[in-house]
Amino acid sequence: MDKTEKPVAYSLPTSIYKHALPLLYLIAVIHLSVTVQADETTLQYTHTERSMQPGEVVLFEIHSSRPLNQLLISAFERQFPAFTEDNGLIWNCLVGIDGDCNPGRYGVKLEGSAPDGTVVSESYSLDVLTKKFPTRVLQVEPKYVTPPENVLDRIRNERRLVDDIFASTTQEKLWKRPFRTPVPGEVISE
Question: For residue 29, how many other CB atoms are within 10 A of its CB?
């Protein structure tokens, strides 16, 4: 700028000021909502199964947007622990569908806890389809299906033991992928 030139002062119209404050407020709200959303923990899952029918097993894979210390899946009126091998970001869980489960829609709840104590949960649903189990009719003598009185107490005790076993879940992972057939050869019977 030449010494003979005088600086030019520009003035903004006052109408711009009345729009500037709401615009600044909007920018602040957008920034705040983006920040809050980034801090929220989200859970997303996929499931894999041979079929969504009674008697089947469903493999859940859950992805968390932040590491979790623990993750449980509630389904079919039971809780199943999920296991992580990825520092709490990816979890796997096996959920069994009981053989006597009726067809219909069932709720699934994922609930985890973050290292800071935050509890995160998501709810989904699964549609269980009808399954007709094959049956065979056997003709046997009554003595093979009607136990004698002297063994009924033992049968009741063993029934309670079996019921307790089926009602419990382990907090330890006893499986790993990929899954394979337990014995070689063709399946000859269900």
Answer: 10
Q: Per residue in 41-83, pLDDT tens?
A: 888 889 999 999 999 999 999 999 999 999 999 999 999 999 9
Q: Using one digit for the tens of pLDDT, what is the confidence trace for 103-162?
A: 999 999 999 999 988 999 999 999 999 999 888 888 999 888 888 899 999 999 999 999
76 in helix, strand or coil? coil
Residue 173 contacts by C-beta under 8 Å, 6 or more apart in sequence? 83
As a whole number of angstroms, the distance between CA 30 and CA 50 comes to 45
Consecutive H or E run containing 62: strand 57-64
Residue type, 105: R
Q: Is 83 left (phi over 0), alpha (psi -120 to 50) or beta?
A: beta
What is the Cα–Cα distance from 123 to 127, expressed in whole angstroms? 14
By the 10 Å C-beta count (0-12 exposed, 13-18 middle, 19+ buried), 124 is classed as middle
pTM above 0.90, yes or no: no
